[in-house]
Fold this sequence. Notes:
Shape: globular
Mean pLDDT: 81
CATH architecture: Beta Barrel
Distance between the termini: 36 Å
Amino acid sequence: MNKVELIGRLTKDPEIRYTQTNNVPVASFTLAVNRRFVKEGEERQADFINIVAWNKTAEFCNNYFRKGQQVAVVGRIQTRTWDDDQGQKHYITEVVAEEVYFADSKKDATSYDNEPVNNTTSPFDNSDFNNVGYTVNSDDLPF
């Protein structure tokens, strides 16, 4: 089984691109995920996890996620390799997002430019507004 559940803060706004052949949206961003334990006398450490989202999930992330926001991602780990122009082999490990959720509380939900961010209180409830499979229209949001 290959399943990952992460909660962390976005290090910058998601970047969206489109594939050349089919114009499929793909968004990428990095989550700073705090480590569970802190050694005595040290600051809390974080891991910076690369996330990739495709199709409607990519569009959702691009439209609603902002730097500093706390979000939850459910997905799978994927590794890729490629050779650059000099023949050097590169490896990358990333999480392919299958579900994404807001994880900030409503009272803490402001983006970097102090405009309210659409949010819910729980990252894992069954609300259609949290489920990226739901087509989100900003007129339909209850907040």
